[in-house]
Automatic annotation (TrEMBL):
<protein>
    <submittedName>
        <fullName>Sulfur reduction protein DsrE</fullName>
    </submittedName>
</protein>
<feature type="signal peptide">
    <location>
        <begin position="1"/>
        <end position="24"/>
    </location>
</feature>
<keyword id="KW-0732">Signal</keyword>
<dbReference type="InterPro" id="IPR027396">
    <property type="entry name" value="DsrEFH-like"/>
</dbReference>
Amino acid sequence: MKTLFSTFMLSLFMLLGNIQNTIAQETEKQNYVVLTKKVQQLKPILLAAKELSKEDGKNFGNFEIIVCGKEIGNLTDLETMKPHLKEAKKVGANIVACGFSLKKFNVDPKKLPKKVEIIDNGILHNLKLQQKGYLSLGL
């Protein structure tokens, strides 16, 4: 009788553990980060974000686009950035500028659109997001 009871309890705990894992997987958000050196890549990146948002549904989490490198000054072109910022807002993506690149290539952070966040080091930020489980792509 003890063996039967022990087997029943063990089976019950295993079943509850599987149910708990399934629920956790269903409610876990999928986060993404893309590191790019070219502002002209924002359009295809945002198209990808839009598609992933549709596919992931309610499990779509954060989507960060980090811009680094010598072309970072292109972020200050407000006419070019306007449609990208609009699409980013619609999709729920964040466009982030690498502060290290801004300094290195003498770009005035005050000339960036207000919606563009500045972080100290884009590569480090990318690596830290990967540590948190973000899926990452470097272009």
